[in-house]
Amino acid sequence: MEIQIFGVRKSAETRKALRFFSERRIKTHFVDLKERPASPGELRRFAQKFGVRTLVDVESARYAELGLKQAVLSEARWFELLAEEPLLLKMPLARNGNQLTIGAADDEWKQWAAAK
User: Fold this and answer.
1) Distance separating alpha carbons of residues 48 and 44, to the nearest angstrom
2) Which of 34, 52, 67, 70 is the most buried (most CB within 10 A)?
3) pLDDT digits (tens, 9 = 90+) for 24-80
4) 65-76: string of b/e by CB count within 10 Å (b at 16+)?
5) Entry pTM
């Protein structure tokens, strides 16, 4: 089992996810979104399950900097914006095969760890 985690090292939630799996000796593949944005295919996978708007972190500093509080954008435009601005994503995005989570999802992660 290898868990793929998308996030940034400065994010407390991302560090929490990395620590969670590390403590359970579960191999992770970390993708730092500041160094390499998530591929459009990966973003689509999360968007298909949760919806594009669920991926947007409305509490992020980048969201406020871009003035998106009043924005009315189509799902396609949100998708493009998330691909261009990965710091708008809720973090971490975690993937275990076809299972996906957004943000801290301790209960689901525990299920993944129990199934290893």
Assistant:
1) 6
2) 52
3) 999 999 999 999 988 888 899 999 999 998 999 999 999 999 999 888 888 889 988
4) eeebeeeeeeee
5) 0.89
Instruction: Check if the beta carbon of residue 55 is closer than 8 Å to that of residue 82.
Output: yes
User: What CA–CA distances, in Å, run from 87 to 23, 47, 51, 92?
Assistant: 26, 16, 17, 11
- Give the domain CATH number at 75: 3.40.30.10
pLDDT of 90-112, one tens digit each?
A: 999 999 999 999 999 999 999 99
Q: Which secondary structure element, helix H or strand E, spans residue 18, and what is its range?
A: helix 12-23
φ and ψ at residue 5, rounded to 5 degrees: -120, 125
Cα 90 from Cα 13, distance rounded (Å) = 9
The total domain count for the chain is: 1
**Can you tell me the distance from the alpha carbon of 45 to that of 10, in angstroms, rounded to the nearest whole number?**
24
**Concatenated DSSP letters for 69-95?**
GG----HHHHHHHHHH-GGGB-S-EEE
